[in-house]
Amino acid sequence: MLCGICSESPAVCNDGSVMLPLRVMTYNILADELSSNLVPRTMEEPSSEVLQEILGDGAETKWREVDKALNNEYRKWHPMKTLVTNPQGLKMKSRGLWDQLDLTLLEGKGWQLDGVHVEDPVTLDGGKTFLGVVQQYMTQEQSLQLYKALEKVHLESRAWEARGPRILEKLKVYQPTVVALQEYDVHDLTTGLGTFRQALEGLGYEGLVFLGPGQEKVGVALFWLKSRAKLEMDLPEDRKLRCGASASGSYGNIDLEEPGLERPMDRRPFGYAKLLVDDVQPVLCCVTHLMTSSRDKDGAVRKQELQTIRQILESQAEVNCPVVLCGDFNINLRSGLEEHIFEGTGHCRDETQAARFHWRRGDGAELLLRDAFDDVNTDPASSSTRTGTRLETIDYIFYDEQFLQSLFADRSLLQCPKEAMPNKDEPSDHIPVVATFVQR
Question: β-strands 205-211, 240-241: how paired?
Fold first, then answer.
């Protein structure tokens, strides 16, 4: 929750015009294809009672062995990104088939599996499914009992039908002016209020998804309150922008072109939109999702991505136009663990520990982007994502200190609940991160 909801009292600009506080939310909503309760990294594990009922004596020890095997096998699946099509005509990455009971039955149910090889009911392109792994340690009956127990949790808290409305509820609670979403693959999924995009429109938001390189469904997204902000140029009718496309500086989607990543879908997008806020002030809003640490052990890729973003803003950041940069950076600042990745990117802390990117605008003038949570995000008590295997602070909002002032009393608490996420209360494995600004 916000530390102290601001009263939305207007700020008077230097020229006498009025701008209401600008509230920004960044939120990794957890890709639908990764939300299954059978995916090890975000799994809500079976209770001791359930394990005892299924496995009998020594259940906990047996489960640890199975859990280790599931995590090891899923490492093969996470990079499986060949696009397949479900019976509803929606494309998804092949890794989303991890939780299927019998792969050989899918084509008969209307799936299109071009480009992947189903070897047997539990093997796809050399990788065993969830059921294929557990059957190596349990009887078929025990395996199905475990599957159904985990599936029950999935249907109650992980399935999109359960998560979608709760994500919308977060927006209702925080009422951000601008919201940046990562792992956004739900544009066309239904919520009971039409598609997710239509549900956002029902809450008063306009926006678009910036598709990742080589992607047809997943990317990052920006949405904004239509009553507060607008674009100079019209948006694509489907509100989808392919990587490499732009509209006369009004908005654009840029491939970060990480060196060594030849397959486009392995690379990351950078999306931006120049919004006229309250008919007063243009604000350049930017969103990204940097490389996962599992594919960038030493941080070199994330460092390069930040250097690329620096170059992008040197051409896109105009004079007298505030910049807001936010997203999931996958750089864990909890206890300062990965702050070294920022070295060489123009990021530094001053004597008060305030953290900023010292970059440049298009005209060569200095662009100072300050971390809106720099006073707390290295604290061991802080976090923005929690699963059964990790507790990290990796989500960021940077703001243009020349033009914007942060209302520190009006920002979200940078602290995950004690339970692993997602769960019945939290629809993602990340919490929303929210900050509020006024014009200087």
Answer: parallel
pLDDT tens string 146-189: 999 999 999 988 999 999 999 999 999 999 999 999 999 999 88
Residue 124 CB neighbour total at 10 angstroms: 26
Task: Report helix angle 140-153 to 48-55, nearest 10.
Answer: 160
Closest CA relative to residue 218, chosen from 64, 31, 399, 43? 31
Segment 321-361, tens digit of pLDDT:
999 999 999 999 999 999 999 999 999 999 999 999 999 99
333-338 long-range contacts (CB < 8 A, ≥24 apart) are 333/377, 333/378, 333/382, 333/393, 333/394, 334/377, 334/378, 334/379, 334/380, 334/382, 334/383, 334/391, 334/392, 334/393, 335/378, 335/379, 335/380, 336/378, 337/392, 338/293, 338/299
Cα–Cα nearest to 415, from 430, 398, 436, 399 = 430
C-alpha span between 129 and 136 (Å, rounded): 11
Amino acid at 432: P
Cis preceding-peptide flag for 422 (omega within 30 of 0)? yes
For the chain, domains (ranges, CATH) are: 11-33+160-439 (3.60.10.10), 40-157 (no CATH)
Tens of pLDDT, residues 52-65: 999 999 999 999 99
**pLDDT at residue 5 greater than cutoff 70:** no
Dist. CA 174–CA 177, nearest whole Å: 9
Quote the Cα angle for 339-340-343, to 5°. Answer: 110
